[in-house]
Structure formats: structure tokens, C-alpha cells
Amino acid sequence: MKSICIFLAEGFEEMEAMFPLDVMRRGGLSVKTVSVTGEKTVVSSHGVPVVADMLFEELCAEEVEMIVLPGGIPGAINLDAHAGLDKLIGEFVKANKPMAAICAGPMVYGKRGLLKGLKATCYPGFDKYLEGAEYTGNMVEKSANFILGKGPGAAPEFAFAILEHFSGAEKALEVKKGMLLA
């Protein structure tokens, strides 16, 4: 079964991983958290241990429907340095599959030149890594195959943008109402 995968590295921003996870699961999407650390328990940037659904080594690339990268420091830096994730991103580019990232996470795509000519957003100061992109500073930016979020405060809008991408505006609104956000 294909799943949206949220990749967790030591030092990830918990709100940027857990809020989208919660929203997408409420919306009925198949979502898995994937540890890139070699251990299922991954510690967030604020010291919160989270048990991932699976290890990166257990991942079947053909079953990944979307890559989602939370920010957080050093989480985003650790994601950027992961060779297996780098290879998976390359496969996604070739297959024209959707990718998302929030906060410092968009730098992973930007440093690879994947955002050239696109509107993009990220945490202020990380825009220097968005090679060739038009930095907007918007809370969420949807451009080509990318959904990008600015930071922790953008987590709800980012999460609903992903849900809407897969399930439509009506389903996103239904989940928002159920969460008392609309």
C-alpha cells in the first residue's frame, strides 16, 4: 500500500511532523513516519522522543507516495546529510512525484537545485539555500510538485495543503471542522 512518508531525523521540529501526521490520518490518508537514524525512537529538537512507524532501511521506495520533510535544527541538517534520502529524492524528481517540506526542510530541496524558477518559502534565513527559487515568505507555497511551509506556525496550513492535494478541498474542510479549525 502506498503511503505518504514523514521522515524523522534527530532534532526534528515536532509540531511540523506531528500536526501534518494527525491531519492526514484524520483525513483517511495512509501516512508513515520513517526514522533515518537507524533507531525507531527519534528525539525531537525539544527533547521529545517519538517512536517512528518504521526505519528508513525497511522502506520500499515504490510504496512512497510523497516525501514530507519537517524542519527543526539539527533535524533538517540531518535529513540533508542522509544518503538514502538523497537517492529517494532523486528518484522522486525523475518520476515527477510530489514532495513537501516545512521550516528549514525546504533547504534539502533547494540545495539540490530542485526549486529553481519556483516560488518557495521556508524559515527566514534558510532562504539562502533555495538556489534559484523566488522566496516569497508566505506561510505555504504550492509550486510544481512541491508544497512548502514557512515554519511551526504554518504547520496547520501546510498539513491541510497536503490533505487537499490528495483528497480535495471538501475533505480538507471536513477535517478542519472536525478539529474546530473552520
3D structure, described in words:
- The protein is an alpha/beta fold.
- The chain has six helices and eleven strands.
- The strands form three sheets. It has a seven-stranded mixed beta sheet.
Name some characteristics of this structure.
alpha/beta; 7-stranded mixed sheet; two-stranded antiparallel ribbon; 11 strands; globular
What's the topology here?
Elements: E1 3-8, H1 14-26, E2 31-35, E3 41-43, E4 49-51, E5 54-55, E6 64-69, H2 75-80, H3 83-95, E7 99-102, H4 106-110, E8 119-120, E9 134-135, E10 140-143, E11 146-149, H5 155-167, H6 169-178
Parallel strand pairs: 1-2, 1-6, 2-5, 6-7, 7-11, 8-9
Antiparallel strand pairs: 3-4, 10-11
pLDDT averaged residue by residue: 98
Strand content range: 15-25%
Largest sheet: 7 strands, mixed
Spatial strand sequence of the major β-sheet: 5-2-1-6-7-11-10
C-alpha geometry: globular
Straight-line distance between termini = 31 Å
Element-level helix/strand string = EHEEEEEHHEHEEEEHH
User: How many strands in all?
Assistant: 11
Structural class: alpha/beta
Which stretches are low in confidence, meaning pLDDT under 50 for 5 or more residues running?
Answer: none
Question: Helical residue percent?
Answer: 25-40%
Per DSSP, the total helix count is 6
Kindly provide the radius of gyration, computed on alpha-carbon positions and rounded to a whole number of angstroms: 15 Å
Summarize the structure.
The chain is of the alpha/beta class. Helix content is 33%, strand content 23%. Strand 1, helix 1 and strand 2 form a beta-alpha-beta unit.
